[in-house]
Amino acid sequence: MTRVLNHGRSRGRCEVNWIAETKGADPSSGRVEWDPIHSLWNGGMLIASLLLAPFFTTPSAVAVGMILTGGMVLLGHSVGFHRLLIHGSFETTPLLRHFLIWCGAVAGMSGPIWIVKTHDLRDWAQRQSSCHDYLAHRKPMLADAWWQLHCTLKLDRPPQYDLARLENSRFIRWLEKTWMLQQLPLAALLYWMGGWPFVVWGVFVRIALTVHGHWLVGHIAHRRGPQSWEVRGAGVQAHDVPWAGILTMGEAWHNNHHAYPGSARIGLKPGQSDWGYCFIQMLAKLGLAWKICLPEDMKGRAAELVSVGATVTSSHPQQSAQQPRPGPAESALK
Q1: Which residues are 33's β-sheet partners?
Q2: Predicted pLDDT of residue 73
Q3: How many CB atoms lie within 10 A of CB 232?
Q4: N or C, fewer C-beta in 10 Å, the chain?
Q5: Residue 11: what pLDDT?
Q6: DSSP string, 181-212
Q7: Domain boundaries, the chain
């Protein structure tokens, strides 16, 4: 299965979707700078949660906050932003596409274009033989938290983005400009339903949990944990984070995602919870999702992978044994 870019060139589902080929682009050299917008937003949500939650907590407010957190992570971050907008792993109706992407903005991490650029820069960089520590989560936990939640990386020779299709959408441009303001209608509804406790838990605590939880799982997923395979030639390999499988709606099976990045299904093995894919399956049964990409649709991808259990690999994937592995998609999906 392929995806056609705005200039007409087809691109496989396993390629980085929104970065154009850029001669001389270098993922390893650059400087980390403070990002005032996201720093104040992320820090503000955390501080507000810590200061207000002790005084505005009721059982119903906590329940509403947790339900909204899970709902927005599922519909918005996992399905809307990650699997639909970034990877194009399935297609749906224009109305439902807009709703899911809107939920991604309401999840509270940033606007759609910023999310796409940040995700694909890291995705592209980790596939190279080496990349900057910022893009690999190599710093110790607290230092990495500061970098990822409060700073941005300015590469000396960055790749170019191919964002015309996003930037031509008035809806996407509107969300990019107003992603913070999308909390206001929700906050008004929550206040009407349950007063300030609902607002504190349904907005401040929810966003703080989403943003900081996303960073924590991403940090661990590039440091330690079980692996089924490595990607040949990639300087950064991924790990699964089993305890977070349910909490992240399936996103925590990150080793699987590095292996088959265009797949709508991320939890590939028995017991790997993937509520995001379950939701896409439900949409398909209702006739609201189609062209769903799965590992078996990615012809030739298996040759780019090395089974960790069956092949001895070095700490540098490009030096690993180059014998083709047996089809992991087929064995994983049995």
Answers
A1: 152
A2: 98
A3: 17
A4: C
A5: 60
A6: TTHHHHHHHHHHHHHHHHHIIIIIIHHHHHHH
A7: 29-332
